Structures are given as C-alpha cells and as structure tokens.
Amino acid sequence: IMVLIFPVGVPSYYLYLLLSNRKKLYKRGRSDQYNRERRKRFPELQPYEFLFRPYRGPTYWFEVFESCRRLLLGSVLNIIYHGTLTQILLGLFFVYVSLKFYGSYKPFYSTYDSFMMDYLNLITFFLLLLALWTKLKANEESLVFKYFLESTIVFIYLSMGFVGMLLLIFECKG
Hints:
Layout: H1 2-20, H2 22-25, H3 32-40, H4 49-52, H5 62-79, H6 85-105, H7 111-135, H8 143-173
Helix pairs in contact: 1-5, 5-6, 6-7, 7-8
C-alpha cells in the first residue's frame, strides 16, 4: 500500500509545506537576492530548506515538479507499458516537458545547477532516442544514426564532467 501512498503523498506534502509558507519564501517584486536573504530570517523554515534552497524566489515550489519528474521517469515509466514503444515515447515526452519547464522557469540560483540539469535532460533524451531506434529495429542503412546517437551520448557524458568542473571552479571563484 505504501507503494501507492509514497508517490502521491511525498510530493503532496512538499507542496503543502511550500504553499503554506509561500509568503515567507517569496515576496513579489523583490530581487532574488532579497528573497534569498529573507528566507534566512525565518528559523521555522530551516528544517525544510532542502525543498527551496537551490531555487530562485518565484520558483520556490520547483522541488515538487522535480520530485514528480523523477517519479515519472524513474518509477512510473518503468511500470507502465514496460518494454513497449509507448513507454519510450512517453519518456521522450516527459523529458521534452522537463526541458521546456527548466528552460522557461530557469529555477536555479546557480549556473552550475542549471547547466547540469540541462545536460542530464539531454543525456536522458538521447538515451531514449537510442532506445527508440533499437525498438524500431532499424535496418543497416540507418546504422549511421545509431552511431551518431551513441557518439553523442558518450560526448555528452565526457564533456559533462569537464565542463561541470570548469563551471564549479568559476562559481567558487565568483
């Protein structure tokens, strides 16, 4: 029964905590820096800081979206339509929606966090494209596409570490 309660209960509780404290977390019309400092003035918020700390003022609720995204991609997608083309297409759709949300809201204070999330979403997208190619059992003529996808995934993985380290160094210096 907890398998059903946890995926709905945890994000719902997060949403309740964030919305019930929204006036302490974000004051409209003020800068991100002001809102970040403002949050520190309320000691009752500190136990829940993991829910809002990385996110800019108006996106204090973004951990709820992130929790749902992880549940959809990591759990729900593995259960629903397991092993089918529909599963892969739903995964691509979820990643597309994630990319749009992150691109539209730009929720993170940190450039490093934004960059890493974009990279992780791209890796997931290309992995799902490769799975789609494999599922469709494409013929030999499209092997070039398979090699392109595989090479892209390897390049993204390798460059993520390198560029991520550079961003971290610059963020620590700045």
